[in-house]
Every structure is written in structure tokens, then in C-alpha cells.
Amino acid sequence: MLESAPPKEPQSAAAVLMVRPARFGFNPQTAASNVFQKSAQPQEGDSAGVHEAALREFDALAEQLSRAGLQVILVQDTVHPVKPDAIFPNNWVSFHRDGTVALYPMMAPNRRLERRDEVLAEVAAAGFRITRTVDLCHREALGQYLEGTGSLVLDRPRRLAYANISPRTDLDALGEFAQQLDYDLVTFESVDGAGRPVYHTNVMLAVGAGFAVMCAESIAEKRSRDAVRETLGAGGREIVEISVAQMQAFAGNVLELAPPGSTVIALSTTAWACLDAHQRRVLEKHGNVLAAEIPVIEHFGGGGVRCMLAEVHLPPRL
Prior knowledge:
By secondary structure, the chain is α/β, with parallel strands linked by helices. 28% of the residues lie in helices and 20% in strands.
């Protein structure tokens, strides 16, 4: 008798990993390639205040997600070594339904310190089974980077990975990811209003089960822009197009999640506030909007709500 094909991986997860930062702050090692970060560091005496404000925002988001029915796996960052961006775990790890954990090559040396076995152990302890690790980190020595589901926006059921080529998203690293995890690639180049590369794909594109948010005007080449639109549409998704100005307000940094019996669309209040009435109605049609107030994290970290969440698709531990 023929074996049945394994079930498709769902687009959205019911569990997320969050790393509670020990020393959140402006990261000078990432600022050159991330224009979403504030260009100046806080004054010396303000660093503690920035960290405390970020913790309040982090804790409030974790509480909102828990109340919405999601399993939130909270892991505490370590004070040493200092990891100012530990709050963004989705850049160094992704979790997949077949039991695979993927580890990614990071551009900034101090971000490589975020990869800790203890974090993976806590995910497993929360009731999940890890059967394989795909480690792409050897590419750091080659200057080739691929920063997780920042660089990759995954259509999980169709096994498509959308990727904006940038200093943090390398074609050769993408090729290894695609081969190891059996994904097809949709690549393009996205730029901001000043013509600078958009550092991560997940600030200009989001894919849910029935919708996609896309900053089409940031893709300068018409052929690439049309190809992305066509591929998204072929999956039956309703496309919400946003402007470059809205992208820069984190309107593309959106994550659909699937707690039992519900659908949640998580984004920041900054992102929600910049959307027009029609754009909001489309999102509301596809799930319950969860808007979190994280202005300090956005301002100094240069990442939004989606960046703070590593969705956990692993199978349950037997």
C-alpha cells in the first residue's frame, strides 16, 4: 500500500517563542543596514530607561497574545554577553512542522550571540519535538547572510519563500535554505523612498492564510513586482497594497497566528494607525486584529511586532 503524503504545514502557528531582553537598546552594528532604527543612540543616562520601557512593551504584548489563546513560550535573555537585539528571535531560528529547526547566518557579530541551545531546550520543554537541525551559520565566514523569517516570508502550505535580496539576504544562502527545507524561491529587490535596500523582507511583505500585505511600489523592477503579485494571487490570497510611507511605519510587519478556534493578525499600533479604512477592513475580514503598542522597540530596535515572534510549528512531543 502506498504511503499517504504528509499533511501540508499550515500557514499559521498556535505557539510563539519570545525572548525577554536583558539589555535591549540601540545596536550600532545593525544601524548601517537598517534605516528603521533611530539614527542616534540614547544618551548614556537614558539607556536604562529605554530598556525598562521596552520590557513594559514586551510584557504587554506577551500578555495580549496569551489572552488571545496563543501558547507563548517566554525565554529570558542572559545579561552577558550583551545582546541588544535578543528581543527579535525570528532572525536566527525558525521552527517547522516536520520537526526541523533552522539556524541562520547573521550579519552583525553581536547578533550571532543570540543563538543559544538553552532557548531551543526551552521550546522542547514546552511540549514540542525537534528531530532535525539545519544549520546555515557556516556561511557567516563567507560573508553570506540569511536572517530567518526576517529575510524569508514563507508561504508554508505552498512551500514558497519570498525573499528581498539585500545585504542581509544572500542568494547562495537562500539556495541552501531552499534545498535543505524543500522550498521554491521568489526573489526580488525592494528599496525604500531613498533607493536604499529594504533590510528585511518582512517589513514590506506579509503572508497570511487568506491575505497578503505587500509594498509593491518598493519593488522597482516591474517584472519582479508583477511576478510577486501574480504568485501571491495564485495562492488565492487577497492582497493589501501599502505605500512606502506605510511600510516605513511597519504596516508590512504583520503576522497571522492561529490559536485554537480563532485567527489573530498581530501588528503594532503604529502600523494599524497608518492604514486607511479599506486596508483595515480587509485585515479584519481575515482575523481578529491584535495591535500592540511598542514605539520604543520600533524606534531603537528598528523592528516591529512580527520581528518579536518566532512562530513554533514543531510537532507535539509524543
